[in-house]
Automatic annotation (TrEMBL):
<protein>
    <submittedName>
        <fullName>Oligopeptidase B</fullName>
    </submittedName>
</protein>
<keyword id="KW-0645">Protease</keyword>
<feature type="compositionally biased region" description="Basic residues">
    <location>
        <begin position="14"/>
        <end position="26"/>
    </location>
</feature>
<dbReference type="InterPro" id="IPR023302">
    <property type="entry name" value="Pept_S9A_N"/>
</dbReference>
<feature type="domain" description="Peptidase S9A N-terminal">
    <location>
        <begin position="14"/>
        <end position="448"/>
    </location>
</feature>
<feature type="domain" description="Peptidase S9 prolyl oligopeptidase catalytic">
    <location>
        <begin position="527"/>
        <end position="744"/>
    </location>
</feature>
<dbReference type="GO" id="GO:0006508">
    <property type="term" value="P:proteolysis"/>
</dbReference>
<dbReference type="Pfam" id="PF02897">
    <property type="entry name" value="Peptidase_S9_N"/>
</dbReference>
<dbReference type="InterPro" id="IPR029058">
    <property type="entry name" value="AB_hydrolase_fold"/>
</dbReference>
<dbReference type="InterPro" id="IPR002470">
    <property type="entry name" value="Peptidase_S9A"/>
</dbReference>
<dbReference type="InterPro" id="IPR001375">
    <property type="entry name" value="Peptidase_S9_cat"/>
</dbReference>
<keyword id="KW-0378">Hydrolase</keyword>
<dbReference type="GO" id="GO:0004252">
    <property type="term" value="F:serine-type endopeptidase activity"/>
</dbReference>
<comment type="similarity">
    <text>Belongs to the peptidase S9A family.</text>
</comment>
<dbReference type="InterPro" id="IPR051543">
    <property type="entry name" value="Serine_Peptidase_S9A"/>
</dbReference>
<feature type="region of interest" description="Disordered">
    <location>
        <begin position="1"/>
        <end position="30"/>
    </location>
</feature>
<keyword id="KW-0720">Serine protease</keyword>
């Protein structure tokens, strides 16, 4: 009888090794586990056997998991509401304003989306109605919508310009293909109209037409459709079809609702077009035709376009991006006028343009921040200033600087501007957080010129951290956050963000968790986490490795960790691990590494390169068979990924380079750290087959015990894991219980058995 047929597994499942080969550029690779990609009941049987073995191998962690869930539950304010956002609709007798927000209710998995009518002007601060007012309207109860589905997530919530309808979309499998519904808010009933196979976004063009981007068989948003309510979907107008498989299409709306903004983007170039919202049957007009290597973004202001770009204007190469303006009628780069010149080391991320001011989001020194500039301030400067001399004050200086009224004086924070839908905003909203500071939403006043006023910010909401039954109130003073630097293999200094309790001994005895990602110019910012407290209060050091391939230190930081420089990502992470050990934060036998998706590739690579540096590897939805995937253009995302990893189909040098770091292809006979890989059966981005093949290869070659190599596949989930907050808590508790067990944290044996919280 096979392992997959056992009800109580006697050992880890051993996948069959079938003769399959892959040949390119005269190189042949034996791939005995490729059969796990087949649509075959034997594959599902094997995945279920893996889950059964995971359950058996970790059965002793049940009490610890329960303790971790209890930690999260105790510290979370489960009945709560989000900060309301003001939306002004086009009413029959003039503007009609509502506050839109979400409520969470203890015992319910999903938010309830509601709105509240307001007659006050834009100067009004958002309300905080603890109990639902009598005139509060329920727009969408996600708990009701989720009934009957093992998985449920909402992709968009868009009220129509007149406020009578709500467009909302759902994904009930986890494959990120959404179905759009249209709800009559007067009756609460959905209209018969359905638009299927839609990507995440969508916008209104008037009150009777909704514009979406549709996915092809490879999950690429390749087509923009305009659906007119009341007409069959086969009659939807095709606004635009993208034939270049490297490009994805997306849609957005200008704040004044006059324009539908259509973006086509690859990994290193982009193109935008404008479609009049009142004439969705007209052809979209391209702002600037695409050009290789030119990446730009368009923000539609009241009277001009604001363009964030990396083009060379006036002889200056905008490596870290710059800002230009252009007329609404612009048709090419010749129409661009520089207003913020590039400054190396200051990564300009984008512009939000309002009636009286602009908000310029930037990243400098690894920190996220934003500057507020009055609409007239640009003309006062004479020539365009550089990005390190923005003619406005930064939100961080108001929130965490040395100015009078600063909320958190001289604290290093992640500060992010919030994009608001109202054109005539009279305040700027921002979110700040750190590894010590729960997420806090504030609004800052503007003066008559549209610049930030010299006044304390209004605190709208600070994420509550409730008292723990054993550890008591959360006190940031009991913890330490710091920035370290590791020296990479080539001498580059790599930043780490580190947090731990003040009473943790720094003599190498503490357990530690080191997280990394390092791809797509995604930055891993230092943010607060309630679940992380469960590690910190058990004596853990937790660190974030800001390795190359991410965007923490600008565009060049990303470029140094992609394509033929990808190996830097892996060696940077190993250097960060060595830095933690060398500084006495932990020891290799007490250190677990964690990463997901492209960060899972990082996990697989460091497991091969430096297995002695880690006690455990937690690889979530890991991209561990990259070469096989990138060689199959028919798979979701493959063609669009060539600009991130290279094209091994046509370039033998890329093939050899990727073959040299692919985790699956470099598994060898050695002792590995203990490994837990996770996946979702319906994951479109990283197929379950990648971790399944990787784990099979590890079991075949590694000298470890069976219980050291584990795979868990969520059979009703996609790339983002399970849906619903209580299931998500249980999933995170399962992972953290494994981490704690791997390093043998103090008290883990008793806690695993009883469920009592550890120290």
């Amino acid at each position: 009888m096979s392992d997959s047929a056992q009800t109580r597994p006697l050992g880890a499942p051993r996948a069959r090794r079938l003769p399959r080969t892959r040949s390119h550029h005269g190189r042949t690779f034996d791939d005995p586990y490729e059969w796990l990609r087949d649509d075959d009941p034997a594959v599902l049987g094997h995945l279920q056997a893996e889950n059964d073995w995971f359950d058996a191998a970790t059965a002793g962690q049940e009490g610890l998991r329960a303790s971790l869930v209890a930690d999260i539950s105790a510290r979370t304010q489960q009945t709560d509401l989000s900060v309301p956002v003001r939306v002004v609709h086009d009413g029959p007798d003039g503007p009609l304003a509502y506050w839109y927000y979400g409520r969470t209710i203890e015992g319910q998995n999903y938010p309830v989306q509601v709105r509240l009518r307001t007659t006050a002007g834009p100067d009004e601060l958002p309300p905080r109605p603890t109990d639902a007012p009598a005139d509060e309207e329920v727009l969408l109860d996600m708990n009701q919508a989720a009934q009957g589905h093992d998985f449920f997530q909402v992709g968009l919530l868009q009220p129509s310009p007149d406020g009578h309808l709500l467009a909302w979309s759902e994904d009930t499998t986890g494959d990120e293909r959404f179905t759009v519904h249209f709800r009559d808010l007067a009756t609460g009933a959905d209209l018969p109209d359905l638009v299927e196979d839609v990507a995440w976004g969508g916008v209104w063009a008037g009150n009777d037409t909704f514009v979406v981007s549709r996915c092809d068989d490879a999950w690429r948003p390749f087509q923009v459709l305009a659906h007119r309510l009341g007409t069959p979907t086969p009659q939807d107008r095709v606004v635009l079809t993208e034939t270049d498989e490297r490009f994805w299409l997306g849609v957005d709306s200008s704040r004044d609702r006059r324009w539908v903004v259509i973006g086509a983007a690859s990994k290193d170039s982009s193109e935008y077009a404008l479609l009049p919202a009142d004439r969705p049957d007209s052809p979209p007009r391209v702002v600037t035709p695409r050009s290789p290597g030119i990446d730009y973004d368009v923000e539609v202001g009241p009277d001009r376009l604001w363009i964030t770009h990396n083009a060379t204007l006036g002889g200056e190469a905008a490596v870290d991006f710059a800002v230009a303006t252009a007329p609404l009628e612009a048709t090419g780069i010749a129409d661009w006028t520089p207003v913020l010149r590039p400054s190396l080391g200051v990564r300009v991320l984008g512009v939000d343009a309002y009636a009286t001011h602009q908000v310029i989001s930037v990243r400098h020194g690894g920190q996220l921040d934003a500057y507020v500039v009055g609409a007239d301030a640009w003309s006062v400067t004479g020539s365009a200033p550089a990005a390190d001399q923005v003619p406005g004050r930064s939100l961080a200086s108001v929130i965490a600087g040395d100015e009078p009224g600063a909320i958190v004086p001289e604290r290093v924070l992640t500060v992010q501007a919030v994009s608001l839908p109202e054109l005539d905003c009279t305040r700027v909203r921002a979110i700040y957080t750190s590894m010590l500071d729960p997420q806090t939403v504030v609004e800052c006043d503007l003066d008559a010129t549209g610049a930030l006023a010299v006044a304390p910010a209004h605190v709208l909401r600070r994420t509550p951290v409730l008292d723990h039954p054993e550890h008591g109130p959360y006190d940031p003073a009991e913890y330490v956050q710091q920035r370290l630097w590791a020296t990479a293999e080539d001498g580059t200094q790599v930043p780490l963000s580190v947090v731990h309790r003040r009473d943790v001994p720094l003599d190498g005895s503490a357990p530690a968790l080191l997280y990394g990602y390092g791809a797509y110019e995604v930055s891993i910012d230092a943010e607060f986490s309630i679940s992380r407290l469960s590690l910190l209060d058990r004596g853990f050091v937790v660190a974030l490795a800001h390795v190359r391939g991410g965007g923490e230190l600008g565009r060049s930081w990303y470029e140094q960790g992609r394509l033929m420089h990808k190996r830097n990502t892996f060696t940077d992470f190993i250097a960060c691990a060595h830095r933690l050990v060398g500084a006495g934060f932990t020891s290799p036998h007490r250190l677990v590494a964690e990463g997901g998706s492209a960060g899972g590739l990082l996990m697989g690579a460091v497991a091969n390169l430096a297995p002695e540096s880690f006690a455990g590897i937690l690889a979530e939805v890991p991209f561990v068979d990259p070469l096989t995937t990138i060689l199959m253009p028919e798979l979701p995302l493959t063609v669009t990924e060539w600009e991130e990893w290279g094209d091994p189909l046509t370039d033998p040098a890329v093939y050899d380079y990727m073959a040299g770091y692919s985790p699956y292809e470099n598994v060898r006979a050695q002792a590995y750290p203990r490994i837990l890989a996770t996946s979702g059966l319906h994951d479109t981005r990283v197929s379950y087959v990648e971790p399944a093949k990787w784990v099979a290869a590890l079991r075949h070659l590694a000298t470890n015990d069976d219980a050291d190599i584990l795979l868990r596949v969520e059979m009703e989930a996609g790339h983002g894991g399970v849906s619903g907050r209580y299931a998500a808590w249980a999933e995170r508790a399962r992972e953290l219980a494994w981490v704690i067990t791997v390093v043998g944290a103090a008290g883990v044996d008793a806690e695993a058995a009883t469920g009592a919280s550890g120290a």
